[in-house]
Amino acid sequence: MDSDPKDSSAAKCIQVRFLGKLFHPEYTHQCFEEETIFGYAPFPTDHTPLFSNIPIHPSYNNHIYAKDYLRLEVDLAPSCEKCKITVYTAPIIERQASSTEEPSSSSMEHLSLSGTKRKDVEGPTRLDIPQVLSKLKQCLPVDETTIDTNDDVTHHFIQIPVGTKISEFATMHGSFVVHLAHGNDDRVESYHNKVQKLALMFIENASSVDLRSNEGGEWNILYLYLKHDENNYSLVGYMTLFNFFSPFKKIKSGIILRICQAFILPIYQRQGHGKRLMSCVFDLANGKYNNDNGRQTAHEIVEVNVEDPCPAFVLLRNMVDYNNFTLNVTSEDPWIPMHYLQGFDMLTDADATNAACKAKITKTQIHISYEIYKLKMTLSLLSNMNDGPDKENIVKQYRLMVKKRLNQYHKEDIGACGSKEEKQAYLTKLYEDAYNHYLSILNRKY
Description:
The chain is an alpha+beta fold. It has helices at residues 9-13, 129-136, 186-195, 199-202, 273-285, 311-328, 349-359, 363-382, 389-409, 411-415, 420-442; strands at residues 14-18, 21-23, 41-42, 69-76, 83-89, 109-111, 164-171, 174-182, 217-229, 232-246, 254-264, 301-306. It folds into 3 domains: 5-155, Histone Acetyltransferase, domain 1; 164-308, Gcn5-related N-acetyltransferase (GNAT) (Aminopeptidase); 326-442, no CATH class. It has 11 helices and 12 strands. The model is unreliable at 93-121 (pLDDT under 50).
């Protein structure tokens, strides 16, 4: 059983407070080498692997050198434009890494951000507090002019949200607004350069973007805000979009809208916000905001794709595309010919290309949506059948349809397998992974 990424040593040393809620970073490898802060262990809690029997994150292997406790309390402003960092350490404790000894509150020492240089221990050089803060500030919106003051950042809301409002909705969690911002706007660039640092702690291998970079396209950002009242908003998350012209795109040339990064603060995750932002992306692609709230473009957006999606975003993307595919099946201009709804024919390349053009997604996403749709139909059909050859034949037909597509899509990987048996085993594994992924989508409520 793999340990959770939140269980890393460095992550457990960092505690983020946002609108009264507490959480830890999910990833710290982009700021701290080997996801540990050399010379320090996190203050023990019920959830710290070092002091419990659950699997220990590899970063704790370095705690043979960690003889001091450390807690970095980050108060993140509702605007996410600034934060306040408070450092707590305990006096050097001579103990083994497996010790469950917990310091008394009287032994805790509060340090200012300038810190005090603590003596080294055997092994890697102990990071002093200024070094720790220097690394931490790579992934936090630190305002250098206020970091050493007693400024209460918890009241730093956004009075005027960045961008132009394009959507609003209400849930049991509050009222929300979505704003579309353009990267070449000075205020947008200034704001985004601060808030995008947070992604380094919550998206694996995240990277910052230069909104003014000349890469043959332009940047847009969708910001999602929680509306507290008419004059106070807080950030929920954002989605960065890169638009560039593709002159050779089939069936017609136009703009590719690429989703590069999607970030939702931990306290708002699993509330459907990713799906809502995706919906706004497709509304944008379909020209809904061009006249009223967005900028009129010289070319039509012909495709929405995603840059190196993580597994969680792959799931979200496939759910959204499948849902849109299902809604389109009975439309006046369906993406695929109706005869595909009978039997188990794989989409031809021409039909998949045509469907992708209509849907403004990639051919692969059309195939995936189609296969999920066919699986739902297959499972419904099987539920009314008795076990026997007919039932087995239907299962086989569906399996062969999906395997045929996977064999084409993964042709090089399968070809790299040595023997026929290895190729068959690899293809079977691909099918099982796809089948289980499709089932997880069909079993979700959205």
